[in-house]
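Example 413.
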Amino acid sequence: MGYNISRYGKALQKDGIAVNRLDKHLKPLVDEERFSLFDQISRFAANEVAPHLLQWERDKQLVPDHLIEQLGEMGIFGLPIPEEYGGQDGEMIDLVLAGLALSYWSPSVAITPGAAVSLGINPLLRFGSADQKAEHLEDLAAGRRMFAFGLSEPGRGSDAANPQVVAEKTDNGYVLRGEKCWSTNAAWASHVVVHALTDPEGRNGHRSTCFIVPRDRAGVAYQEMEGKTVWPLSSTGSIAFDSVEVSEDEILGEVNGGFRVMVTTLNGGRLFVAAIALGSLAFALDKTRQYVQEREQFGGAIGRFQRVQDVVLEMDLALERNLSWLIQLVHRYDQGSLDREQAAKVKIDCSRVASELVQDAMEVCGGVACLDEFGLARHAADLFVTRVGEGSNKALMSQISRSLLPEIADQLQ
Ligand SMILES: Cc1cc2nc3c(=O)[nH]c(=O)nc-3n(C[C@H](O)[C@H](O)[C@H](O)COP(=O)(O)OP(=O)(O)OC[C@H]3O[C@@H](n4cnc5c(N)ncnc54)[C@H](O)[C@@H]3O)c2cc1C
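Predicted structure in complex with flavin-adenine dinucleotide:
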């Protein structure tokens, strides 16, 4: 049986009364030009993503090619890329604003340019050679090319410093063997940045090297991971390397400096993940505010119950507080003064607070909240990834505990 969303409240309008909490909290935090960028992407998402989202998800398809092209034309893939390579010459703050605007409707649409830029383009900008930048940046800026981030493996998740993918030195370069998994954007990736073991005897954190490997190179096999219940429109692939030859020119960064490339990249990635968690929270807040004023039980709107108001208020507080914290840290990242612990903390907190509150929001909306067309169930499911992706919250908390409890750091598990 098909449902019409209007049965459960009017469709959210960008200028409708219910929609303005993200706009309201964001406006004082960024300058006019940046707010206008956010507003433009927000309107694009409301017009080009929101009306089709449900159908795309029910059809079990990935982000359609035309949408990737549109995002490319809007310049979203090129946000941090210098103008000389066809980019927008922007900063991380611009990508974070795009993430907030897109994830309000769909975290899995948002992560497509989000991962392409924060995990694909940023390491090339930071660690790439002049030749590598000249070869790739123009196409990456236009969205014609994408780099996938090959850190995770079937046997290496949180414990990523010692990959089981091995790069063996040869006379001409290296030969790669092994498998990466959970690679976001694998379906569209022209290249994979592969983190591989190059010096098993080296110091911890100095045993691996990153390689930029074309996905169509002989011996590379990609498969979309099946049965994924989160980020339905995002591509997530396994990529296997069967004696794949790579040259020294394809090394990203330094030999045995691969782990540094990966962990430095994750700082930016975590800010983006925090942003998409807040985009979900903002959607849930607006949807809940709207619904509890319309839905009547016991002779009046359910929003008149104080327990319902408390949930709405907690969501609004959490959005305002965490957004302000996130934007402050993103500015620090852009100034080069954000440390790893801060990036991890904001990812941990935005993801867990948003997940808990979206569950509460579903409860105060009642049974309707489990319908896909209502939208909250999508965000609740997708928020799971923000807790586990780019470093599981619990593993990151273990790392942070070492600096909190330095006297017993060597005893901590
Ligand atoms: C949809 C999706 C997209 C992804 N995209 C990418 C991508 O593009 N590229 C990429 O490389 N990876 C990607 N990942 C992988 C992601 O980064 C890993 O899932 C994450 O690093 C955790 O690894 P794991 O799932 O293997 O969990 P494990 O490492 O097996 O950990 C499982 C659980 O054990 C506990 N745990 C582990 N270590 C510790 C510790 N030290 N202290 C306390 N508790 C601990 C935690 O509760 C943790 O959640 C993606 C994952 C998902 C789900």
